[in-house]
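Researcher: Let's walk through a ligand-bound prediction step by step. First, I give you the protein sequence. Second, the SMILES string for zinc ion. Third, you return the three-dimensional complex as structure tokens. Ready?
Model: Ready.
Researcher: Here are steps one and two:
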Amino acid sequence: MDFKKAIDNSMESLVQDIAALCRINSVEGEEKPGMPFGEGVAQSLEAALKLGQDMGFKTENFDGYVGHIEYGEGEELVGILGHVDVVPAGDGWNTDPWGGVITEDKIIGRGVLDDKGPIVTCLYAMKILKELNVPLSKRVRIILGTNEETDWKCMNYYLNEVKPELPTMAFSPDSEFPLTYAELGLLQYTLTREVKDMPFIEGGNAFNSVPSSAKVELDVKFADELKKAIAEAKDPSIYTVEEKEDKLLLSVKGVGAHAAHLQEGVNAISFMMDVLGKLSITGELKEVVDFYNEHFGTCLYGEKMGVACSDEDCGPLTLNVGMIYVKDGKLVLCCDSRIPVSFAPASIIEKVQAKVAGTGYEYELHSTERPLYVPKDSKLVTTLMEAYRTVTGDYESQPQSSGGATYSRTMENCVAFGCLLPGQEDTMHMANEYLEIDKLKIWLEIMLEAIYQLAK
Ligand SMILES: [Zn+2]
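Model: Step three, the predicted complex:
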């Protein structure tokens, strides 16, 4: 099919429609009747549905949680999973993050990449197929979530309350080209023990981040030992010691990173424990330090917890301790593991529970997400890869696995496809999120080819 002219004719209004949708601040807000995630999110969903309606598609709004835009006839259903909510703007913008600014060569605004640009692009691909009357044998449905950036409550409601007809094949344009066929399973849990005379200790601020700082209070009598331990540490420059009366405050400066890429970080808690393990401390602090160094240490792949495993698709399991703190008489360690698709999260849970049994620590599940896996030789993956390759001529980039999580793992036979192109700057969740119009045109070409090939 030659869609070239239709694509050229669509670009101007595509740019306008993406910019307009990005002018709606759809950060999660206070719940209101019919607006489970606040007014901005509701407005954003309505605006996206209205776009679809104006193009002549069937639309439906499921109580403000999820929306449908559907085209075509046929038994089978092709799904496209996106979201209309966005992360907060944050600081550092050179333009109004909610301005939907259009320059000569780009659109700038929160959501242009994640995920408003991609969903409007898919909508335009459907519009072109409709206008050109291209014969299709399957229905195509865009499924719009509203709470992707925080809790995925929209998809929970949709799958468990609405219980919709599910697509037989689907993709989520909320990641990168060419395609992600495997997303590691996710397991977050806490290990907790009672403490009575634990000194001040804290580090990190989220399960899924490598902690960039950690602190602990020590008796001043350890000053010399501490000095020596720091001097012998792998990187002495990350430690600072302040002396206050009869106390020492040891601060450790790590490097923050997403737990899915923990190799890029330096875990401040682990390196704090490493040094504490060399001191002649006693009591509860000593017990906690020993437990930590026996079960976590400074390794990244769960070796000491006895959960190390890996597979060809995903590489090794990772284990990040994201937080340590004392609250209500309890010391809490918050752990995040990304699990290769060949291993069930339940089997890892069993191993952790067995390992900590009898240590005085209690295991508690915080959250778990099943992995995504669609074989590389499946029709879905080969069809989408072919569409990407035909348009871009890029035969080198291969389908990938990822420790991140997209909606694609919520459904069977669904992968992440698009929309960041190789070499395209990733400004998702950052200041000055932007989308170049020449890249947008390639997105539209790929999506048009992909949807056509899947639904023909
Ligand atoms: Zn997204």
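Researcher: And what stands out?
Model: Residues 83, 114-115, 148, 174 surround zinc ion (CB under 6 Å). The domain at 4-184+372-455 is CATH 3.40.630.10 (Aminopeptidase).
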